Amino acid sequence: MADVNESSSWRESISSVVGDTGIRYNSSYVAAEMKGNDAENWKFHAVEFAKGFGEMSVEFGKGVRDVLKQSVIKEDSILVRKIGVPCYKVCRRLSFLNEYLPEDRDPAHAWSVILFVLFIASAVLIASNDYPTPSVRKVYIHPPSASRILLPDGRHLAYHQQGVPAELSRFSMIAPHSFLSSRLAGIPGIKTSLLEEYGIRLVTYDLPGFGESDPHPSRNLESSAMDMLHLSYAVNVTDKFWVVAYSGGSMHAWAALRYIPDRIAGAVMVAPMVNPYEPKMTKEEKNKMWKNWTAKKKAMHILARKFPRLLPYFYRRSFLSGVHDQIEARLALSLGIRDKALLEHPLFDEFWQRDLEESVRQKNAKPFVEEAVLQVSNWGFSPADLKVQRKRPGKGILHWIKSLYGQTEEILTGFIGQIHVWQGMEDMVVPPSTSDFLQRVLPDAMVHRLLYEGHFTYFYFCDECHRHIFSTVFGNPQGPLVPEPEAEQSPIQNDDGETQDTIMGDVATDEENVSSLVNSDKEDYID
To answer: What does pTM read for this prediction?
Structure first.
């Protein structure tokens, strides 16, 4: 309003001096001019505010830099003492890159700008790319269907049987499963006709906390061997049985050979895993084992050994998330060409989904943490302890005198049965250096090296491979046992020609016969 009043008084003063010229000014033009001035003023204030904010940010950054230099980035600070030397070594190794910078530029300033621009460009590219969204497949929990036994400690153990019945089995095989698997795995793709041809009874079971088996309060490898022992008795395996193991499930087979060797006829292992921290492995063998693994798999092993409490967080974001994914993503596997081709087959994908769904049935991370910790912790024994060797005589004068005047009995230690190991030479999950280690510490073990085979290709859905394993271990197929026919009892005739029926009962032992005679004599004596 003040501007309008000033403009009107200005026109009156001019008109009084010059006179009325007849010219009239349009009021709309004056209003438009005033609006244009307001817009310019708003832009001016916005620009000035931005300049002030920028100057204040620069000064604030300088202040933060000075504070960091005076308090944190000092030679005697904890941060510099911890990471100063490693950062200096890294910068010294990368100093050759400064040759590509302009001579008049500070390397620290130039590389900070380059990294910032690289970060912004990467973020823009990731946001701009239209990745195809794959269809989400949720994990389905199936109704319970397993047979279960009651263990002496009150737990239930779920199992599954394939092949011939117990009374017709020529060979019995018990198979523990590997990590993120279940009793449904066994020997993937094994045909019932092949098991019947060799007279094999295959029993697989869920480890504690997996599938339909109850968890164990304090699980270790010795308790794992005891579970296998109780299972063998519960399913009527009276003779010695063979243990079949694959990949990470091999540590339970090693435990069975160590703790219940009298019940084991032999071991069949395909791509057997050993403790990556095994103290009897050479440095070269350990390096060959670790170098082919992905960074995520290495990190999982380190977490399992050092910080196992962090594993449930990663497991719940992975295979316990309720969503399906590829096996190499869930287990952080590095695979070869043939393994990748097998994993893309629909038959393998269907098998993997069903096995995973059964494995995570209880949705509890603790059994998986226990399994991962067992793999990298101290087993209490080494595979080298299974080597057959003479037991060393005891020390002391008493043992020396016994050796002079008596014949000492030769005692063998280790596992006396057969150990068969099949190892793919293109396996990147369990590298061939593992079989080299086993061949070195177990010279009696039969190691079968397989050219052009990976981690999955020899064990999963390969009829020829399964037949080759059975023929190597058991020889020519002989089929199941033939049940013995029951003996027919003919009636007994008396001297008069009359027949008497005979009743077949349990055969009495000598002790029972003696006790019956003694009791009859006592009765006669009492009478």
So the answer is: 0.68
Q: Can you count the helices (H) and strands (E) in the chain? A: 18, 12
Provide the token pair at 306. 């050092």
pLDDT in tens, 498-508: 444 433 333 33
Is residue 278 a part of any domain in this protein? yes
Beta bridge partners of 244: 268
DSSP string, 399-427: HHHHHHHS-PPP-EES--SEEEEEEETT-
Q: Give 314's pLDDT tier (boundaries 50, 70, 90).
A: very high
Nearest C-alpha neighbor of 210 from the set 358, 376, 374, 369: 358
Range of weakest confidence among 41-50, 373-382, 391-400, 422-431? 391-400
- Cα separation values, 101 from 98, 220, 369, Å: 5, 58, 49
The verdict on residue 6 lying in a domain is: no
Our count of domains for the chain comes to 1
- DSSP reduced 3-state for 73: coil
Single-letter amino acid code for the residue at 338: R
Print the domain residue range for 295: 147-392+411-482
In the block, residue with structure tokens 């952080």: 332
Which helix or strand (DSSP H or E) is residue 266 part of? Answer: strand 264-270
Question: What pLDDT, on a 0 to 100 scale, did the predictor assign at position 434?
Answer: 94
CA 197 – CA 514 distance, rounded (Å): 48
Task: State what percent of residues in the chain have pLDDT above 90.
Answer: 54
Q: What is the CATH number of the domain that holds 381?
A: 3.40.50.1820
pLDDT tens digits along 363-407: 999 999 999 999 999 999 999 999 987 766 556 666 556 655 555
Q: How is 153-210 classified by DSSP, letter by letter?
A: TS-EEEEEEEES-GGG-SEEEEEE--TT--TTTSSTT--HHHHHHHTEEEEEEPPTTS
Structure tokens at 389: 């060797």
